[in-house]
Structures
1.
Amino acid sequence: MLITRDFRPSDRAAVEEVLTTTGFFNAAEMHVAMELVEERIAEGPDSHYRFLVAKDGGITVGYACWGPILGTESSVDLYWIAVHPRCQGKGVGKALLLAAEQWIREEGKLRVYIETSSRAQYQPTRVFYLATGYVVDAVLDDFYSPGDGKFIFVKVLSPE
């Protein structure tokens, strides 16, 4: 049974394992992801970053991380959704996204932005976002490196 809950410091190693096992993230991306985890651990609920973890049978199978966009009234960046490869395609990512969107709504935010690479390996990720109601708001060619652009997705949430 899948359960999503707020992040706890004891989740650090499991989140790192999920990130590592996906095989998607390069060293720089891993460094950034773990910096966000470390900040959340250091600052607790006062952190800028919000986290949800997905557990199945007590085992962490995925996580999501987002935070408000400073200087905006109602916008957030969804930084990461990562699901362990053995659980991909089983609804874990969608459950995390829906739970995150609910939390985002409860914080009074209604615009969710997601950035992802244009590399071929991210095609399933882009399809996932489109299938969950996000639209491509912009594409920045060669953003990350030559041949690796940035897709920016947005979804406007309906207020409760």
Note: The mean pLDDT is 94.
2.
Amino acid sequence: MSKRFNKSQNTAGRSLGQGMLIASFVLALGGMTFFFDSQLERQYNPNRNPRGSETGSRVKEVILEQNRQGHYVASGSVNGVDVVFLLDTGATDVAISPELANEAGLQVGYATQAMTANGIITVYSTKIDSLTISNISLRNVDGSINPGMAGSTILLGMSVLKEIEFSQIGSTLTLRQYPETRL
């Protein structure tokens, strides 16, 4: 009888050990997924929390780092909604997806045609009440709601970039907003 009891204990111990091993693998896989996802996000958007400064003459300045693909991507907000901006000097306006436009409470305006990398498309005009990157803030900005866009990345086009000074040295881009800029 004692032999049978030991065999039962051994089987239970083995099952517990296998369960612990599986749980360890699941936890390790989850941890690695979280770590590498965070690393990939940093590579895409090295400016998740861009720091702003202000000079004595009230010039607001934000310095952005280039991402791995050579683009300037930065976190900010549109009408108080957190977004990710991709600076695009080839875009006339701020281009935003319908989902983000809805979330930010943007009104759909008149339809117009726009030339994109994918050809001519129909976009809808809109006005953005407030757009912010760190301490740089603009009001009443021209935008376009682009039905072909998806996701949380917004193209930061010339309707914003014409209101601020920007200069690139090496892999950094400096944005400057002077006091006379539309606030």
Note: Residues 52-177 form a domain with the Cathepsin D, subunit A; domain 1 fold (CATH 2.40.70.10).
3.
Amino acid sequence: MLLLDTNIVYRWLMALPIPGPVIQRIRSEGAMVSILSSWEMLIKHDVGKLDLPTLDVAGDIAAQGFDLLAIKPEHLLALTELPKLHRDPFDRLLLAQAKAEGATIVTTDRIFGEYLSNAWVV
């Protein structure tokens, strides 16, 4: 299963360019989106850093057929096991979720590959 990083989800919702192989793999394998990504996008929208189609980000994500992934205790435990390569709390929790779920995280952020061998940096 794939876990989409916030930047991929945002591109999907805003119909911004995503490489064809990424779209094909998402459609063939299915994907999860952390509820954390909804929160991150709403925070960035609130401070004027991000435009959104609607404020119902979680609903928009679900309408695309993505499974919403809640934050679970095992994700928090996995968070404590990650190396401290950078400080972005959203990225770190997404990485912990991918690790705990055994999911491949799809991202444009190269540092994710330093955390997880199954990170797919596009």
Note: The chain has one domain: 2-121.
4.
Amino acid sequence: MSRPRRIEAYAIVSEDGMLANAAGIMPDSLKFEADRQFFEHGLDGVDVAVHGRHSHEQQARSHLRRRLILTRQVPALEPDPSNEKAFFWNPAGASFEQALAVLGCPDGSVGVIGGTDVFALFLDRYDVFHLSRAPGVRLPAGRPVFPEVPARTPEDVLASHGLHRGERQVLDPAIGLAVVSWRR
């Protein structure tokens, strides 16, 4: 069976490693124009977006992307009745390779965009994980980027899964917003 040619992820987190508040909502304090541009440019280079039921990139071109939406509400794979380019996928019932094949993209590039369990599912498969940090933002009791956070930092989790820290790329020098791309 074919394998995707590249799996990458995009996440912006608070200083305490959270990607959403306690209600599971990404607050405005985690939204920055420079990060949005980096994220959108990256997703424009992938064939398939993978995310959970509550994650979505909410961009002008979102409806054009093929996508896998992770859920436990289906046994394996089912088409999304509201989007002909999307399938609901339960990893307990179908492999990732099977899901990509059903989507018609067995060897395409993949962009993983969250949430917590979705990011964790691919930790041993990422080619690159783009991790942005929101300076000065803390979300106590928020939703972590990985299940091990906050006991471990997101960087510690990525390193423990064989990813290596890349160069820090400043996205907005006025506020100190930066992204680090962790590579296998």
Note: The mean pLDDT is 93.
